[in-house]
Every structure is written in C-alpha cells, then in structure tokens.
Amino acid sequence: MDLYIDKIIEKVSDKYLCKTRYKIKKVKTIAGNLHVIICPIDDQNSEILVALSVINDKKEFKIL
Predict the structure, then answer these.
(1) Which residues pair with 24 in a beta bridge?
(2) Considering the entire predicted model, what is its pTM?
(3) What is the pLDDT of residues 33-54, one digit of tens each?
C-alpha cells in the first residue's frame, strides 16, 4: 500500500474550471475499511471524510 499522507490530489472533472485540489491529512479505519480525511488547499478548516477506494479510483481523483 502506498503512503498517502500529505499528498496533493485533484478532483477529476470534465470542466477545466472546477479542478479542486485537496491535501490528505489523516488515514482512519472505520468498520474495518480505510478512509482518509482530506481538506481543500485554499481552506484548511474544512475536512471531508472519503473512503480510500474513492481516492484510488482514477475517474474521481488524480494523485499529483
């Protein structure tokens, strides 16, 4: 498994205008599944909890 802490990821979209970049802060286990906490680069106070499988999906996010 790759280490994902402090990596920058970008939301993949068809439009070039809304490519939001996120930074991975923490990795957590919930009910035996791995999840990551991500926050937008421009707003460090907001946090989003996402499953690690969503981060690995090339259609959703791109790891920079």
Answers:
(1) 38
(2) 0.78
(3) 999 999 999 888 999 999 988 8
Query: What CA–CA distance (Å, rounded) separates 16 from 51?
Result: 25
DSSP 8-59: EEEE--SSSTT--EEEEEEEEEETTEEEEEEEESS-TT--EEEEHHHHH-TT
Phi, psi of 24 (to 5 degrees): -85, 125
- For the chain, the average pLDDT equals 85
C-alpha 57: how far from chain center = 10
Q: Show me where the domains of the chain are located.
A: 8-63
Higher model confidence: residue 2 or residue 6?
Answer: 6
Tokens at 8, concatenated: 């920058």
